[in-house]
Here is the input.
Amino acid sequence: MTIKDIITVPDETLKKISEPIVNFGESEKKLIRDLFETMYNSKGIGLAAVQVGVLKRILVIDISSKDEKKNPMSFINPVIRKLSSETSVYEEGCLSIPDTFIEIERPKTCEVEYIDFDGKKKIFKCEGLLSTCIQHEINHLDGKLIIDNLSKLKRDFIIKKVSKVKKNPDRILV
Ligand code: NI
Here is the structure.
């Protein structure tokens, strides 16, 4: 396994739309292992392939806390099938936007269709932190970042000088 370099704003690759995987094989499995290695190394709970510069629709997530057993989950070609109207709010960070946390409201539950590590089609329902995390990562596959809904002024400010903020237990890094 290899720890890859995570690309950060304003790298234009982060705005690109990732391509679906047509044939899921060994090179994609290697990429997934590298994504986990890279994510764990950066203390994140989610990482999309585009964040290491690979425009493939693959993402990895592990929301287990450091005292718990690891729970790695990988999603190939994830597609959101359902979103709840009920929402939840988390203060989200992003490994591609260092030291920046933004409160974001998203659907509280979601249903995702995807291919798993064994190449099988699956449907996954989740809520809360996991739901937020998956939505954040799927946004990456579509070239969207958590700063996109801010005013240009704020966005430019963040890109130029990422704010230093105190640690908060509700903050997540994805
Ligand atoms: Ni992110």
User: Anything to note?
Assistant: Residues 94-96, 136, 140, 174 surround nickel (II) ion (CB under 6 Å). Residues 12-166 form a domain with the Peptide Deformylase fold (CATH 3.90.45.10). The mean pLDDT is 92.
